[in-house]
Amino acid sequence: MTKPITKIAPNAPSFYDNDPQDELITLNLGPTHPATHGVFQNVLQIDGERIVSGISTIGYIHRAFEKIAEHRPFYQITPLTDRLNYCSSPINNMGWHMTVEKLLEIEIPKRVQYMRVIVMELARIADHIICNGILGVDTGAFSGFLYVMQEREFIYEIFEEICGARLTTNIGRIGGFERDFNDIAFAKIHEFLKRFPPVLEEFENLFVRNRIFIERTSGVAAVTPEEALSYSWSGPILRATGVDYDVRAVSPYCSYEDFDFEVPVGTKGDVYDRFMVRNAEMWQSLRIIEQALEKIAGEPAGVFHADVPEFYLPPKEQVYTNMEALIYHFKIVMGEWEAPKDEVYFAVEGGNGELGFYMIHDGGRSPYRLHFRRPSFINYQMFAPMSSGMLLSDAIINMSSLNVIAGELDA
Amino acid sequence: MSKVTLAEAPPGVEGAGFFATSLDKAIGLARANSLWPLPFATSCCGIEFMATMGSTYDLARFGAERPSFSPRQADMLLVMGTIAKKMAPVLKQVYVQMAEPRWVIAVGACASSGGIFDTYSVLQGIDEIIPVDVYVPGCPPRPEAILDGVLRLQDIVKSESLNRRNTPEYRALLESYGILAEIENG
Amino acid sequence: MGNFDNQYITDRLQRNFGTDVKILGESFGLLSVGTAKERIIDLLRFLKEDDELSFSYLTDITAVHYPELEDPFCIVYHLHNLVQNIRIRIKVFVGGEPPSIPTATTLWKGANWMERETYDFFGIDFQGHPDLRRILNMDDLDVFPMRKEYPLEDPNRVDKKDFYFGR
Q1: Are residues A31 and B55, on separate chains, in Cβ contact within 8 Å?
Q2: I need a surface site. Which of A51, B30, B77, C7 has the fewest CB within 10 A?
């Protein structure tokens, strides 16, 4: 029998004392189990409540993104990225656009970059709200989830104001945005900055010093930084182990170097630390949004895209009235544009970690090869090995604190 | 004044101290207003369903208070998100496990038709493997659209005859999906 | 240990591996090197364990299919030195059927699923891998769908016949 690798809370009874039965049960957890928030299957060998070993099966919503991407022009790949990590689609959209911009070497105006930062940080907050809210639900505290979900709806309203969609936003264009933020959008962002902090504070008050929550999460699924790095973890769960690797800080993109923010890290890498890191990141995101709004005010108004007509999809009303716009529109839609034959790797800090785009372009209509480095896929790999020795209920909250998103996992 | 909203009575004969209607309609009314949903959420639409269940949109207003994660105690299967071919047998089994009467809503483009994922690995609409009652368009549909889908299903449920599930047509429908034998053998 | 640049990495690699390691390019500041499958594990181990280079973080493993080449499969490793924040890309071209390469799971535990995914999509046999099974696709799929010869759409579909569209 494998020995438990995780720490047991000090007052928890040992299940190995005088065990009269040494018989294991096979439990099929998933792929449609209510406790797993998505289509994950784990076949577990359990000894009473304790997991002895497990095998993860994934691919239940494998949609062949990479194969589709080889058959679609660049603009049609944006909707695919939406559906990778659908809790924070705008980050994926921006990541993809910035990958193409890196390939095309397009210079983006500062104001557009700050606008992107706002959208990305709002998306990050929405992502972390889901993860931490659900973690609360899984530990038996439902109300926190209801409080923060209302704010998440408000973030959706902001997205709706900016691009018209709530969840799968398909936001932006290569070179910038499809339209400027309108006054209502700015007003709503300002309102969000006012109304969210008290809610987040209340949410934290419900959990941070809550004895039950601490007992359930502290020390559970603790991971050492060495182990996390050997499994190529990234994102909040890596930072919870104490490694301060954040793509925004290490290789700043989209003018993140202009912002003053901290990279919160944990010490033990357990579920509690991951919760705290995500909460702290929400506070940092709020700081970043605040600074971005200030910076936007100092930039020339009305600039919302780079001046690259050969790549930036022209507005529809111009396509109908302006010859030049029509030509560009046709060329862009048919994928007949001049792009260097090259390969590029670009990474953004997604909700769950380093979201990388590795693109090889051979001058055709669509990328020759596009590979997504999907943090959920890589982070989830450790779930089964680290579950052995854990209580079943701990494994469930471990899974929800990993925040694995099925769309990103299976691609 | 009570704040409880009463469901609208079905057409019938009313007089002093009595109300008469057919059993079909009375049962249909009861069923329609206590549909227990089984959320079969696989991807993006599931997140929108979360919003639908949440405080802002509140699906519970329409009698669907209790999401049932066990197929045995559910009436309304909401399939939300892409169903890959690897997932198809699981979905079929969940459908078979549900007790009659059961209804299915295909929420979103992927469940209805495969959506933008016209690939080798994705099932092109769940109606290839199980019968569907209501299709909700959108990628993903807004919570209002999901609510509307549930309301449309309520209309179907209200007008369904009690005998429908025993008719040869219904058996032929199940047979065409190849699940009749499985269902009858439990 | 100061900052080092791609030139320094190139020098170190050439001193240690000579002609076994080729410099393929430096697009967008990211150094790409190529090697043969016989030397790949040595190269990865050197890059990972060298005190100075210390590319200890495996970002990604994937593959690319070039059907017209003699060795049609290119396996691509991205490594990252988190301290100096330098990335490097390593490419290995392999041929044969099945195309094979030694596994990197001996160096990084995280390589396990990345290699399974690559096997699933391209059919590359990672020799020595502890559990080389399909990961995303169904077990009974008998093709490797990311190879260029296989179509995107399911060829067995019947609902897309021209007949239905009046053609």
Answers
A1: no
A2: C7
